[in-house]
Amino acid sequence: MPPISLAYWRWTGAFIVAVGFAWPRLKADLPILLRHWKMMLVLSASGIASYNTLSYIGLTSTSALNVLLLQSASPLIIIVWAYLLFRETPTARQTLGVLVSLTGVAAIAAHGSIETLAQLRLNPGDIWVLVALLIYGFYCVTLRKRPAVHPLSFLVAAMGIGSCMMLPFMLGEFAIGARIEGGFASYLGIAYTAVLPSFVAYLFFNRGVELLGAGPAGQSMHLMPLFGSVLAVLFLHEQFQPYHGVGIVMIGAGIMLASFKSVRGQRSIARPTVT
Description:
By secondary structure, this protein is an all-alpha fold. Helices cover 78% and strands 0% of the residues. The longest helix has 33 residues.
């Protein structure tokens, strides 16, 4: 699958699926969305159009291990953006929690081998992924400024705008000969990505950011290698190894630590009102 085409059809497919559910809310919220068109452009460009597109481009020239470890830096990136944009500082416990869970991710990704981590080398694809993560961290932190509309209205509008932003690049990729191959299996994969990781997961994640704030919600990204390991054991018949157990315990402990917030920190979270 060409990377830009995958990103485009992922979000266009998600928009097509979601717009039917969201239409009554979207129609009622449209005046508010139009008043906040500048913020909608920012959030659509960062959270929809850029993040997955740049990630997929990077994945064509780097390893899964590199991407997993880079992606695990997301909670730290979010903390930095929260400070730069809103002067929010994490507590010592939150910072420790991020570092503990990050260590757990490294243990799973490297299969418990320090030598594997020592042999890690960066390549051009990692730069694309890192830029994507920087942009997505900005989206997570700026999400608090989204218009005060229903979550479905916001998500569908953002997906539609993001798809329009990606369209010229997808057409350019098509013009140079890039095509989706693999037949039905490839299109089934796109359909899955459109419905669950795009529509459903983004709806839940946006709500989590709204309720918890960007930092604690971003910490959930460390759960991806944990879930990936469990799914690999269940569906790919991989053997559960001691490093899986160590990583899972450390990720869980880190998330618990990072979930504790001071009263001052809780009051600083700006949550949009939804109906």
